[in-house]
Design a protein that fits this description.
- It contains 1 helix and 26 strands.
- It is mainly β.
- The protein has a single domain, classed as TolB, C-terminal domain (Neuraminidase), CATH 2.120.10.
- A hairpin with a 2-residue loop joins strand 25 and strand 26.
Length: about 300
Amino acid sequence: MTAITNTEAFYELVPRGADVERVGTGFTFTEGPIWNAVGGFLLFSDMPGDVRRRWDPDSGVSEVMRPSNKGNGMTYEVGGSLLVCEHVTSSVVREHADGTRETIASHFAGKELNSPNDVVVASDGSVYFSDPTFGRMPVFGLERAQDLSFQGVFRLPSGGGELELLLDYFEQPNGLCFSPGESRLYVNDSSRALIEVFDVAGDGSLGQGSVFLSGIGTGEVAEGIPDGMKCDELGNVFVTGPGGVWVVDPAGEVLGLIEVPENVGNLNWGGSDWKTLFICASTSLYRIELAVGGNRLPYMN
């Protein structure tokens, strides 16, 4: 893997001596962490295990849904509804607090989506999500032929409407996140082991992309790949990769590596001050206390 030297700027974000703490283990492959600030708990997916779990500091880990349609990425909307990317149904669904659910995206141009993977909600309520093919593979989803001829990134306008195709040239689009202020959207391509960045226009569309960081490993899953990705409140990008979580400044310079003993699938901010980084890594759930908080997305405010 690429050798990474932790810089002084890295230690301003990740205090010296801060270690990842394993808070749960024994899972199949963890993904999609999302913090519920009202309830003080974390939800996370065990995608191949077809179960959703929650963790809180008092009760530890418990199951909340089985089967879960091999759900993956999750996020909240401002009103408290939970959005979930489901591999088995090839859909993005909205789960309301009363237990009811509705499908908000399942097809594009009359064809079934591949397997929505990760999702983020903009301040205007529009929904952005990636759609690789991982959920059509054995173990990680329901094995079946692909309906679409590409792997895309989509936008669903606030309040619904026609699904908009934003990107169609990535090999396996995966994690995505906004910069503070939502002027930029970062999208990683797991197979190409890189992150591209796009300017976000006023109507929510994307400008021409450029490579933000390449060489995040080789694209081999066993080594660790760019998968989950989030921004902190200062605009630094935290992305999964070989060895753990890579920390990258807004100019695309790698500041350092948060070492994790298992391959990391995803990560997200939580805790009372949004400075706890929760890390979903293969069979376990970890956390680490940082000196910086997450980029305050609408549901976090």
